[in-house]
Task: structure prediction
Amino acid sequence: MSKVKVASFGMSIDGFSAGPGQSLEHPLGVGGPMLMQWVFPTRTFQQMHGQGGGETGVDDDFAARGFVNVGAWILGRNMFGPIRGPWPDGSWKGWWGDEPPYHVPVFVLTHHAREPIVMKGGTTFHFITDGIEAALTAAKQAAGGRDVRIGGGVHTVRQYLQAGLVDELHLALSPALLGQGEALLAGIDLTALGFTCTEHVPSSHAMHVVLSK
Amino acid sequence: MSKVKVASFGMSIDGFSAGPGQSLEHPLGVGGPMLMQWVFPTRTFQQMHGQGGGETGVDDDFAARGFVNVGAWILGRNMFGPIRGPWPDGSWKGWWGDEPPYHVPVFVLTHHAREPIVMKGGTTFHFITDGIEAALTAAKQAAGGRDVRIGGGVHTVRQYLQAGLVDELHLALSPALLGQGEALLAGIDLTALGFTCTEHVPSSHAMHVVLSK
Result:
């Protein structure tokens, strides 16, 4: 059965999944890359970014799993780019260059309408202005029975969690302190939403936990 | 040099170090024991509770380390017992029976004065009514150059952290969701307080992290 899932989401010891001060220079916020140290060396990440090699093992297994059977993605506006407010022009096409690592339709939540952007390699960015449920409906239709992955950022994941629309959440609990940033789970009662921790696997870089309904 | 430390403190995926509804039946709150699954099988825990055997390994190493060179403890009132308000009589002497596992002076924070209680095995409970700094001064004096361990509960640890009085914090990040409870780090900027993660060791039950100044 198709799922709505969040995967490979890093979280700091103090509960943040992004650092403060997101910008063009700091897409994950200041300190945010500390949450992703587990993924950078993996074969999945290295190959996605056009490098050869990369490590296999627990971290790579989880990184790879996040892409299995994904038929569409949903991203918040801030994960798509650093621009706020109306689109000044059509020049910003995401952080990922000409061939983004999605290879399926990607639905971007925004308050500002924009024509779809067809990228190389199968990724098309669609801009959705009528809310998270409309985006999910469109994504499920595009996914054609495969899973929908909520890519982030933090605010977007929180919205989908609070609306009870997420089936599975893979977090990589990272041995990093951020001090400030965007708290992923603060004020969200995952137990009341029906989640339990169904899997936990340590690596030398992180503790991977899977939360499922 | 002597340190003020917190050790073997469990924390859930969602950031809670105690469950809701603490009571005589649920000293760690409802669900709280899920945070301590890593410690129960250890040799340190088993021997402390008069059992033989127990497991060695990473979890036991951390459990044992928390007791090394500790000359005094500080506990919050709620960690000492479930009674709130004035002491009705002298009958409550802690959760731990005649011979508590401290074996050194223990300073209990309370608003209600009480005479010290001398227990078997070297533990004496002292009741401190003039605040966390007074308790720390007394504990350091009693420790005679050894470390002072802040035993808990959550509110007490938070007070000492916020006052900048803690040197080292060992957390066992546990693969459990509580949904509700007492958040350990919410609203506390450990980075601004000077902490970094200086050690992280996974076990099959938890990810151990040491935060130090």
Helices of chain B lie at 43-48, 58-65, 77-80, 132-143, 154-162.
